[in-house]
């Protein structure tokens, strides 16, 4: 009897500790508060301006389309590891919308939507499992101050869509990726947001383009990759660092390791109707990169840039996020 009571006490203590650390627990087997991530998000308070709501998503594969609406902010959603907790859905741009009868399109193809702000994701895998059929977004991000830590993003064309843009008076929304893995085929990191990628692995699954920024005109920063690793699947030998989805695209790689799949010219202009003068208006730059795919000025396209040490110093996390020289207004760890 004493042994039974001891075991029961330990189990109770474990459950109590879990309840203390997390407001909501999601478990696919039904042992948590909810069995789906969407149910947990729906249960979070609306318009929380103070307290952060923490959600633990236990190990398992959750086959659902998740939407975090704009009124569900200040969330910390944590998995039990990006290799253990997977959020997966299989929609794509060519699918027909049941109401309109029209194709979903790129924006309608996402498996996971983030419309709110001040949200941290940690130890999760986001997957669009539609396969190489069309644009198929794994995560569509339209919020501000979004932080992904130790996450994986799996897909093919258009894996990560950094959609967010407030408009010309307020500028871009901000996203931070740290210690993440992102894979795809064509333009698999794309959009208008201001995004800082630190110590991430960026893996190409086909000969194509890694980024397709659509940085708005007049914005000083677009994508910054800092101390990242650019890798490729077997047989992939010809990848560009980026091409401009819109004419004023900005993308910079600093102190990154580049594999042999990166072509010597580095960048593509993608000029066409509605996008004149992309060579003149876009800004593609590098500093301190290394590895077989890191080429110098004589090999890269003439309209790209090799930064000086002084110029590269302007691409710190604080300056990219806030255009400030001293002080960081947002500490991503405060999201948690």
Q: What can you see in these coordinates?
A:
With 336 residues, the protein is mainly β. Helices cover 12% and strands 31% of the residues. The chain has helices spanning 2-21, 37-43, 278-281, 309-312, 317-322; strands at residues 24-26, 53-57, 60-63, 66-68, 75-79, 85-89, 112-114, 119-122, 125-128, 139-141, 146-149, 152-154, 160-162, 165-167, 171-172, 174-178, 181-184, 189-191, 194-198, 201-204, 209-213, 223-226, 229-232, 240-242, 250-254, 257-258, 283-287, 305-306. The strands form four sheets. An eleven-stranded parallel β-sheet has the order 1-2-5-8-11-16-19-22-25-27-28, sandwiched between helices. Strand 14 and strand 15 form a beta hairpin. It is globular and about 60 Å long. 46% of the residues are buried. Residues 1-19 have low confidence and may be disordered.
Strands of the widest sheet, in order across it, are 1-2-5-8-11-16-19-22-25-27-28
Indicate the mean pLDDT.
Answer: 90
Portion in strands:
25-35%
> What kind of assembly state do the chains in view correspond to?
single chain
User: What is the helix fraction of residues, given as a range?
Assistant: 10-25%
Major β-sheet annotation: 11 strands, parallel
Number of strands: 28
Shape category? globular
- How large is the radius of gyration? 21 Å
What are the segments in which pLDDT stays under 50 over at least 5 consecutive residues? 1-19
Q: Which structural category do the helix and sheet elements fall into?
A: mainly beta
Tally of helical segments: 5
What gap, in angstroms, lies between the N and C termini? 41 Å
């Amino acid at each position: 009897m004493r042994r039974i009571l001891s075991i029961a006490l330990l189990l109770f203590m474990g459950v109590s500790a879990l309840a203390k650390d997390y407001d909501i627990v999601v478990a696919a087997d039904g042992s948590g508060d909810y069995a789906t991530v969407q149910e947990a998000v729906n249960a979070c308070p609306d318009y929380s301006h103070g307290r952060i709501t923490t959600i633990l998503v236990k190990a398992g594969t959750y086959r659902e389309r998740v939407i975090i609406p704009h009124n569900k902010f200040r969330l910390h959603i944590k998995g039990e590891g990006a290799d253990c907790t997977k959020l997966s859905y299989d929609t794509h741009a060519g699918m027909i919308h049941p109401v309109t009868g029209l194709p979903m399109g790129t924006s309608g193809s996402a498996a996971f939507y983030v419309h709110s702000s001040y949200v941290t994701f940690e130890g999760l895998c986001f997957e669009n499992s539609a396969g190489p059929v069309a644009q198929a977004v794994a995560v569509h991000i339209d919020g501000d101050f979004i932080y992904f830590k130790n996450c994986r993003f799996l897909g093919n064309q258009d894996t990560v869509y950094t959609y967010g843009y407030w408009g010309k008076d307020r500028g871009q929304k901000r996203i931070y990726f740290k210690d993440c893995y992102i894979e795809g085929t064509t333009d698999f990191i794309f959009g208008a947001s201001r995004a800082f990628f630190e110590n991430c692995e960026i893996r190409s699954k086909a000969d194509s383009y890694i980024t397709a920024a659509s940085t708005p005109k007049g914005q000083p920063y677009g994508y910054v990759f800092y101390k990242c690793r650019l890798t490729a699947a077997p047989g992939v030998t010809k990848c560009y660092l980026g091409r401009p989805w819109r004419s004023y695209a900005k993308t910079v790689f600093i102190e990154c390791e580049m594999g042999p799949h990166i072509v010597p010219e580095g960048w593509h202009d993608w000029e066409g109707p509605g996008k004149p003068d992309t060579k003149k208006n876009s800004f593609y730059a590098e500093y301190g990169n290394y590895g077989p795919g890191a080429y110098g000025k004589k090999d890269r396209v003439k309209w790209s840039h090799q930064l000086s040490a002084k110029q590269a110093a302007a691409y710190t996390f604080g300056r990219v996020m806030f255009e400030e020289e001293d002080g960081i207004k947002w500490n991503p760890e405060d999201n948690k």
